[in-house]
Design a protein that fits this description.
Blueprint (H helix, E strand, L loop, with lengths): L1 H17 L15 H9 L4 E3 L7 H18 L5 E2 L7 E4 L5 H6 L11 E8 L2 E7 L3 H16 L8 E4 L5 E5 L29 H12 L4 E3 L12 H14 L5 E5 L4 H4 L11 H17 L5 E4 L16 H12 L5 E5 L11 H9 L10 E6 L23 E6 L15 H9 L11 H5 L10 E5 L15 H12 L5 H12 L4 H22 L30 H5 L5 E2 L16 H8 L9 H4 L2 E2 L10 H24 L7 H33 L14 H6 L9
Parallel strand pairs: 1-2, 1-3, 3-5, 7-8, 7-14, 8-9, 9-10, 10-11, 11-12, 12-13, 13-14
Antiparallel strand pairs: 4-5, 4-6, 15-16
This protein binds beta-D-glucopyranuronic acid.
């Protein structure tokens, strides 16, 4: 039975195993370098599981992954057995394995998902124990052990304990029922809704494996701009099929719920959360869902936002709406993720202030199975934003952090932009909500305000593309999200380093150069798109390329002009007390740091301040010169990334090397386009000459303004 499981896994890995097309992600398990292989093999002679008992599907998955992975790394067969021999890896929980029970490992403080990996003596033999309180912890431990082996750690001497800091670690798929993906750049949706539940693609299992390997334990399957039909019986059957495939890997499914579903599907006259008929409809719907999917995670809701229905239509608050759904899910253990991404059409209020204004007063009004989900910044996933002021401002409410893994505003899947750096910047930001050190990470993991519940969500970049994300390096952003969701204090650099070793090579020369490319890449994007705190300069609708000149849309806050306000006098959005005073939404130490020109970091300058073009920067340059300088640096950095990548050819397989080379060529061209279009436009506002030695834009402004992209992906 167990051996069969291992075979199935090995078979599913086999076709991809030799073709380096990126399908295997960071689970490549290539033979270790000769000098490490023997030592590793001696510590991986067999995988020992649950003597005398029938293991759960999760334990079987752990054993199969370990056996298949270790066999590849050691380049020799690694059997799954029931008796420990010297050098074996013994896995299980005290309940499932008498051997693990006998070891008496310290499992008290690692919860249900944590694991302990330790080199121990068992009946006179030296073995490695991978132990946990629950089977899922064993699976996480198995992946951790494989990661240690792949990244060249000495697995003969281990003493590791780890437990996730955040309870609910979710991917949010913005996938539509017609197979398209909103802001998805890796082809069609991975979910073949049409042929589910009958056709269950083996990729669903590999998707679950990949997620489990980085500790993700939930997936919202459909777009936040939700179609109500996902809640109908035929679709719930399809959802149940996916849930069944994911279950052994600890991935719970969640659905985005359309607030008007009682009207759309139930034929009710209202979706008012105070209407007893509406409440009964949701209760019945929850029962129907749990009858099919007993471990269903819950709902994600985008309400009263960008045209989506919500409780405000009935004069009710976000809390009223969320609590109604929470009531329906509570008997079954489900959770509501209620999004705080709201801003009113054509409100006179600064858009970036609106979510705080609506949600902060509701602190304490949400049911205990509601988590308010807040984007990392107060605008919308820009290449750089200051952290969202709601973090720290709702002490009585668990807040989930929503990050965007898909690169809607950072060059789609084309540009190499390692987002681990962006995620880290947000998580490390100090809200000062409860004294120094109350970082966003500590708000989100629940420790600052002692919340039992905690959550984090990443808007997925996964699609049907053979390599999952449409680009080799875009995989790193999925990986980094998962690793930071497990431990938000991990360093982006370490995460990139382990990803590179697993995904490409652990060769030292490759490693140093590739790591440097990754670590520089996000700042390069900021520089050639939106330096110095600028934001939202992209093309309307599809968000492809620069369009800072757009100033005439139906909703003014959808125009780039609204954000940069460049004219002959200067540029930037005054969010200090003399302007919108958005800065006052932050805790006093943060607010005063951002409000004061002497202390605000350059990176956020024009987000908070409107300044004359000749404002003197710390560098000694004028603001105008500094802006041009950043655009130039961004373009130069991409050229340097290209040159660095070219030196890595000997270390990378032909297919992924060529693809990355081609993508970098596009990135270089598009970086230049961003730079030229933005400089041409801002120069038309400033009326200033280009600094000496700076190359003029290749084409006149009118050229950039005339470009149209009706078929840009992701819409
Ligand atoms: C924006 C996207 C839009 C999403 C929206 C959201 O452009 O497609 O629907 O956010 O998060 O980033 O709801």
């Amino acid at each position: 039975m167990l051996a069969a499981g291992a075979l199935v896994l090995a078979a599913s890995l086999a076709p991809a195993a030799r073709a380096e097309d990126g399908y295997e992600l960071w689970l490549r398990y290539r033979p270790l370098p000769a000098e490490q292989r023997e030592r590793f093999a001696a510590s991986a002679t067999a995988i020992v599981v649950s003597p005398g008992r029938e293991p759960s599907a999760t334990l079987r998955a752990a054993a199969a992954e370990l056996a298949a992975g270790a066999a590849e790394l050691a380049a020799r067969p690694v059997p799954i057995t029931q008796a420990a021999v010297g050098g074996s890896v013994v896995i299980g929980t005290p309940r499932s394995s008498p051997l693990i029970a006998e070891l008496g490992l310290p499992l008290a403080s690692i919860g249900s998902e944590g694991y302990v990996i330790r080199t121990v003596e068992l009946d006179g033999r030296r073995v490695t124990a991978i132990a946990a309180n629950d089977d899922l912890g064993v699976l996480y431990g198995a992946f951790a052990w494989l990661r240690l082996a792949q990244t060249g750690e000495d697995v003969a001497n281990l003493d590791v304990a780890s437990a996730p800091r955040i309870e609910l670690r979710l991917l949010n798929h913005w996938d539509n029922l017609d197979g398209s993906v909103e802001r998805g750049y890796a082809g069609a949706s991975l979910w073949d809704w049409w042929r589910l539940p009958d056709v269950v693609d083996p990729r669903y299992t590999d998707y679950a494996r990949a997620n489990a390997s980085i500790g993700i334990n939930g997936a919202v399957l459909n777009n936040v701009n939700a179609e109500a039909e996902i809640l109908t019986a035929p679709y719930l059957e399809k959802v149940a099929a996916l849930a069944g495939t994911f279950r052994p890997y600890g991935i719970r499914v969640y659905l985005s719920a359309r607030f008007s579903a009682p009207i759309d599907l139930g034929g009710l006259a209202t979706a008012d959360p105070f209407d007893e008929g509406v409440r009964a409809w949701w209760r019945a719907k929850a029962e129907e869902i749990y009858a099919r999917i007993p471990d269903f995670g819950g709902f994600l809701v985008k309400a009263d936002s960008e045209g989506q229905p919500g409780p405000q239509r009935y004069g009710r608050t976000h809390a009223d709406g969320a609590n109604m759904l929470a009531e329906a899910l509570r008997p079954h253990g489900g959770v509501v993720f209620w999004r705080a991404f709201v801003y009113a059409p054509n409100s006179a209020e600064d858009r970036v202030k609106q979510a705080y204004a609506e949600f902060a007063p509701l602190d304490g009004a949400f049911a205990d199975n509601v988590i308010v989900q807040v984007k990392n910044g107060p605008l919308d996933f820009q290449p750089r934003e200051p952290f969202h002021p709601l973090f720290g401002a709702m002490p009585c409410t668990p807040l989930a952090l929503e990050l965007q893994i898909t690169q809607e505003y950072l060059g789609f899947s084309t540009h190499l932009a390692y987002l681990g750096v962006l995620f880290e910047e947000v998580l490390d930001a100090d809200t000062h909500a409860k004294g120094t050190g109350s970082t966003v990470a500590k708000i989100v993991d629940g420790s600052s305000f002692e919340h039992r519940r905690s959550g984090i969500a990443g808007v997925s970049n996964v699609g049907a593309a053979r390599d999952w994300t449409g680009a080799p390096f875009a995989q790193a952003n999925w990986y980094a999200f998962g690793r930071l969701a497990w431990d938000p204090e991990l360093a982006a650099r370490e995460i990139a380093a382990e990803w590179l070793a697993m995904t490409f090579s652990s060769d030292a020369q490759f490693h140093e150069t590739a790591l440097s490319i990754m670590l520089r890449s996000r700042e390069a994007v900021v520089d050639y798109m939106t330096p110095l705190g600028l934001a939202h300069l992209m093309g309307t609708g599809h968000h492809y390329g620069p369009a800072p000149w757009v100033d005439d849309l139906d909703r003014i806050e959808w125009t780039p002009f609204y954000y940069h306000r460049a004219d002959a006098d200067g540029i930037g959005f005054d969010r200090t007390a003399t302007g919108s005073n958005a800065v006052a939404q932050y805790a006093p130490p943060v607010a005063s740091r951002f409000a004061d020109l002497a202390t605000i970091p350059d990176a956020y300058l024009l987000w908070f301040h409107r300044l004359p073009w000749d404002h003197r920067m710390r560098s000694g340059r004028t603001l105008w010169e500094e802006i041009v300088h950043h655009y130039d640096s961004g373009v130069a950095e991409v050229a340097a990334m290209q040159a660095d990548w070219a030196t890595l050819e000997p270390f990378v397989d032909a297919e992924r090397f060529a693809k990355t080379t081609q993508l970098l060529q596009i990135q270089a061209r598009e970086a230049r386009w961003w730079r030229d279009a933005c400089i041409a436009y801002f120069q038309s506002r400033s009326g200033l000459p280009l600094p000496r030695g700076v190359a003029p834009p290749e084409r006149p402004l009118e050229h950039y303004m005339s470009l149209r992209f009706p078929y840009a992906p992701g819409r």
